[in-house]
Every structure is written in C-alpha cells, then in structure tokens.
Write a structure and sequence with these properties.
The chain has three helices and five strands. The chain is α+β, with helices and mostly antiparallel strands. The chain has one domain: Roll (Ubiquitin-like (UB roll)), CATH 3.10.20. Strands 2-1-5-3-4 form a five-stranded mixed β-sheet. A hairpin with a 5-residue loop joins strand 1 and strand 2. The protein is globular and about 30 Å long. The N and C termini lie far apart (29 Å). The structure holds FE2/S2 (inorganic) cluster. The site of FE2/S2 (inorganic) cluster has 13 residues, from loops. Belongs to the adrenodoxin/putidaredoxin family.
Amino acid sequence: PQLIVVNRAGDETPVDAREGASVMEAIRDNGFDELLAMCGGCCSCATCHVFVDEAWLAATGAPGEDENDLLDSSDHRSAHSRLSCQIVMSSALDGLRIVIAPED
Ligand code: FES
C-alpha cells in the first residue's frame, strides 16, 4: 500500500509501505529523519507523532489507552493525533495521508 507523507517543511511524498509494517517503519525506512521513533515502536516515547488526514480518521481508528496517554503529553496534540508506530499498514489504508507532527 502507498502512504503519503507530509514532512515538517510541508513537502508531500508518496512512499511504498509494506503491508503489516507500521506507518512509523514505512516513514523511517523511506529516509525521513524527522521522526525520531526513539523507542523503536513499542509505544513508550511519543516521538513518532503524526496527524492523520480527516478522510482517514475512521479507517485508522482511535488511539489505544497507552497511546492516548502519551499523546496527551504532546504540546501538539490534536483530534488527528496518532503515534505512527501504532498504525499498521494494510491494503485498506492504501493512500493514507499523514503529516509529521512538529517536534515537542
Ligand atoms: Fe516510540 Fe512510537 S516509536 S511511541
């Protein structure tokens, strides 16, 4: 599936994501260096914060409880906030557009 990544400069880039990999992995593996993803995807650092496009909120679902708590610690929390390591790419998410959140 394809993922559309908008970096902090506002540049939009389509990248190929592996089905079953997280959005965080897809972003990182495609050479973006804005996502620190310090904990490596185990939902404990919140440095993989992204905003999900309005049109994709229903498909990606709500954050889990731990994820939600971590997101609350961000100054940039919004109704579109997710930790990208907690979104798993699938064909249902083909075309998903996300914006990398500003650094906290
Ligand atoms: Fe640490 Fe997502 S990579 S919470």
